[in-house]
Amino acid sequence: MLGVFWGIFMLVIMLGSGNGLRNGILKEFAGTATNSFFVWAQQTTKAYKGMKPNRSFNYTVADAEALKQIPELEVVSPLNQLGGHEGASNVIRGLKTAACEIQANYPNIADISDIKIGQGRFINDLDIKEKRKICVIGPRVVEMLFQKGGTIIGEYIRVNGVYFRVVGVTSPTAGGNEGREQAQRINIPFSTFQNAFNFGDVVGWFAIKSRSDIPAEVSEEKVISILKERHKIAPNDTKAVGHWNMAVEYNKLSGLFTGIEILVWIVGIGTLLAGVIGISNIMLIVVKERTKEIGVKRALGAVPAQIIGQIVLEAVFLTSISGYFGLVIGIGLLEGLNAAIGDSGEMFTNPTVDLKVALKALSVLILSGAFAGLIPASKAVAIKPVEALRTE
């Protein structure tokens, strides 16, 4: 019974730990459409059409309009950022200063990244058209620049000498580094950003969402091909166009964790079977000890099914009781760990086992108990009543 208890306990703990790791890693992908990808400009590495290698280039608003004509794409959202990727700029309000990420957006970025608004609103089409000097800030920006409980919406902040009126406050939807970036980000209308900071028609990078019926990898290849053609980049230059595909990375990790889950089930069931074999051996001893009893029952008219049922029922009872305690203690330990970690875990979150998995484990347990009783039961049925009655 201890072997069965340990087997089911370890199965639950390993499954819960695998889920915790899966949830922690995939939390980084939260809030972003899984069929999206991102494209940015890098230096060329090959000469092409009279152009030298190691040439720098920029995407433009015209590139965005060209990409919008691709039928496989659902959303094309140009973005810009002061200081480049992960760059920070000083933001001032009164006597307070903070280093924040300043990002230029179109409203359709909300179709790719989940934008959750805690107060006010997000950027809209009228903000873009009229080039309004407004901004939507993250909760960390609020902490650094505003007094607790004070007015936020309608107040002004200064970025590189330009004043912007706060119209909204976001709430992070992702975890880890992405969540921290969201919390410390200031979102500004793309057209306003271009004028205020002299970016002209330059686009830093594109966030693109593929149609639901088109794999993101297919759309990504077409986008890269068109951008290479527009900027005279060699078709075999794999470095000039930087790109990151959410769908590809998400599928890689999902496949990895599916493999881990299968391995956990194999190891867990193997450990459980070791305990079941122990119970089966004990039941063989029990059958030998009850030889006379079984002989008496057979002599009084007990059919083989009754004898088999008695032995199998006892084996199932032993495995169920020990397995039940292993299941309950394992789930209790995971729930306690989950309560201790809460939402603070980055690489390990919500290490619990859902009801479906618990029912699967219980099913394996019952089947194992029945299996444990089959061999002893067959031995019991094979006993001849006359020989059994002679046994001392």
What's the layout of helices and strands?
Layout (H helix, E strand, L loop, with lengths): L1 H25 L9 E6 L17 E2 H7 L5 E9 L7 E5 L2 E10 L10 E5 L4 H6 L3 E4 L1 H7 L10 E4 L2 E10 L4 H8 L1 E5 H7 L5 E2 L1 E6 L5 H15 L10 E5 H44 L1 H9 L4 H38 L13 H27 L3 H6 L2
Parallel strand pairs: 5-10, 7-9
Antiparallel strand pairs: 1-12, 1-13, 2-11, 3-5, 3-12, 4-5, 4-8, 6-9, 7-10, 8-9
Helix pairs in contact: 1-8, 1-10, 8-10, 8-11, 10-11
Explain what this protein looks like in three dimensions.
This protein is an alpha+beta fold and 392 residues long. 51% of the residues lie in helices and 19% in strands. It has 12 helices and 13 strands. The chain has helices spanning 2-26, 61-67, 125-130, 139-145, 176-183, 190-196, 216-230, 246-289, 291-299, 304-341, 355-381, 385-390, and strands at 36-41, 59-60, 73-81, 89-93, 96-105, 116-120, 134-137, 156-159, 162-171, 185-189, 202-203, 205-210, 241-245. A 6-stranded mixed barrel has the order 4-5-10-7-9-8. A hairpin with a 2-residue loop joins strand 8 (156-159) and strand 9. Helix 8 (246-289) packs parallel to helix 11 (355-381) and helix 10 runs antiparallel to helix 11 (355-381). The longest helix has 44 residues, at 246-289. It is elongated. The mean pLDDT is 82.
- Please summarize the sheet with the most strands: 6 strands, mixed, barrel
Strand order of the largest sheet: 4-5-10-7-9-8
Number of helical segments? Answer: 12
Structural class: alpha+beta
* Strand tally: 13
Strand content: 15-25%
Given the C-alpha coordinates, what overall shape results?
elongated
Gyration radius, in Å: 32 Å
Could you name the ranges where pLDDT drops below 50 across 5 or more consecutive residues? none
| Proportion of helical residues | 40-55%
Topology order in helix (H) and strand (E) letters: HEEHEEEEHEHEEHEHEEHEHHHHH
Q: How far apart lie the N and C ends? A: 29 Å
Oligomer class: single chain
Average pLDDT for all residues: 82
